[in-house]
Write a sequence for this structure.
């Protein structure tokens, strides 16, 4: 059994003295792990940083084996991201979340493409902390959609109206308008305006935090709690930095 | 059926040696045989040294360095600068910087923040670092973390925590190593080196 694909490095965990078990995100095989021999060599350590894109080749005797990976770097994003704290914390949060929620060896091409796009954006120095925040919120909402738990933000779950949608029901994931919320407004999650298509307003830190509250609630409820997991600490650290 | 070819004492020695970094069962067997062959000239001094180390070496309560005294000889050395504090991940990094003739104080974190391995700030000696940076005569904290995503995440986290300590926070430069040829460097190192270029 073998394959060769473009991939994004999500994580690398030391295995023995010189090897590592590396988690990749591939377009056709989804999240896929493999053993990399010689991972402690200086040249290899640079390649195995989360966020980098690689050309990966996997080989194993049987498909269900862990298999061994060899790889060559195609895009060195981690080095560009490392010097900016917001981008670096966002990268750690994204990779930790992808490892936690994506099922192994289940293809999600849209997640692969979105992840590559977000990582490219994080490499740009012009990205402000707000830009990075809203990009990551969109990625998390998209992740939910790809895994079958998309939010329905097309119309109000109570009145059916399509305008003035400012809340989301924490149970159904459907949008709720100001009028539809009524006395239950305090129990609903705030829907930040930047998640509605074509909203021209300037985005604030509070709106980005509302976005993370929204995506975090459903990721925890739908993807993590069924496996007795909680949101990764790397995401909490990123949110803490955003709040500071 | 023939009995075991080696006695339980030798087998135990081989098993313990095989747990050391760089040694597998085969090389542990070779090391054990060599020690047994040299007997008094190698085995007894090694056993004494191991016993001495186990009984006397302790982690310094101030910086985390390993030494026979607490505080360690680096913390108590009057010739060393007291105003700079170099933060490293492990004692091995401290030894590496000592080879580079750094003449200030150290602080060993005991690892880095790692989402995958579940290492959080409470697992590292970050609280004692903040306390040292705030109380002592420290004017500069040098973050000598590895140039990895986890290492730099930890460095940024520490920078945030040191905001109120009134110290200057610096980090090691990233770029072309001495003797490095551009053609053989990885893209990431080259990108960092280009970003951190200096007037010449």
């Amino acid at each position: 059994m073998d394959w060769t694909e473009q991939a994004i490095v999500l994580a690398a965990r030391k295995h023995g003295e010189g090897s590592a078990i590396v988690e990749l995100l591939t377009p056709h095989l989804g999240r896929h792990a493999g053993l990399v021999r010689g991972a402690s060599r200086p040249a290899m350590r640079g390649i195995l940083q989360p966020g980098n894109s690689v050309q990966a080749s996997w080989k194993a005797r049987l498909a269900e084996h862990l298999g061994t990976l060899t790889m060559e770097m195609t895009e060195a994003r981690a080095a560009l991201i490392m010097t900016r704290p917001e981008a670096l914390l966002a990268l750690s949060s994204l990779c930790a979340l992808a490892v936690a929620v994506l099922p192994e060896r289940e293809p999600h091409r849209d997640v692969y493409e979105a992840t590559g796009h977000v990582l490219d954006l994080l490499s740009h120095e012009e990205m402000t902390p707000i830009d990075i925040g809203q990009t990551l919120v969109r990625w998390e909402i998209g992740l939910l959609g790809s895994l079958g738990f998309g939010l329905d933000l097309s119309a109000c779950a109570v009145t059916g109206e399509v305008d003035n949608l400012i809340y989301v029901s924490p149970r159904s994931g459907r949008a709720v308008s100001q009028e539809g919320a009524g006395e239950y407004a305090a129990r609903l999650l705030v829907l930040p305006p930047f998640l509605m298509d074509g909203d021209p307003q300037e985005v604030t830190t509070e709106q980005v935090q509302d976005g993370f509250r929204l995506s975090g609630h459903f990721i925890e409820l739908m993807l993590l709690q069924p496996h007795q997991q909680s949101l990764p600490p790397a995401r909490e650290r990123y949110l803490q930095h955003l709040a500071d | 059926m023939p009995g075991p070819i080696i006695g339980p004492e030798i087998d135990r020695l081989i098993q313990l040696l095989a747990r050391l970094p760089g040694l597998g069962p085969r090389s542990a067997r070779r090391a054990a045989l060599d020690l047994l062959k040299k007997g008094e000239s190698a085995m007894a001094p090694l056993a004494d040294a191991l016993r001495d180390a186990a009984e006397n070496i302790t982690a310094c309560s101030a910086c985390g360095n390993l030494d026979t005294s607490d505080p360690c000889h680096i913390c108590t050395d009057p010739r060393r600068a007291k105003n700079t504090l170099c933060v490293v991940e492990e004692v091995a990094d401290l030894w590496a910087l000592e080879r580079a003739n750094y003449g200030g104080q150290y602080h060993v974190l005991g690892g880095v923040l790692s989402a995958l391995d579940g290492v959080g700030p409470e697992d590292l000696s970050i609280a004692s670092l903040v306390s040292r940076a705030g109380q002592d005569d420290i004017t500069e904290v040098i973050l000598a973390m590895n140039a990895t995503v986890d290492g730099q995440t930890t460095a940024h986290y520490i920078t945030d925590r040191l905001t109120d300590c009134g110290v200057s926070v610096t980090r090691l430069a990233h770029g072309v190593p001495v003797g490095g040829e551009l053609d053989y460097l990885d893209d990431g190192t080259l990108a960092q080196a280009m970003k951190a270029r200096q007037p010449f």
In short: Chain A has two domains: 2-76, 80-153+191-243. Chain A has a mean pLDDT of 92. Chain A is about 40% helix and 20% strand.
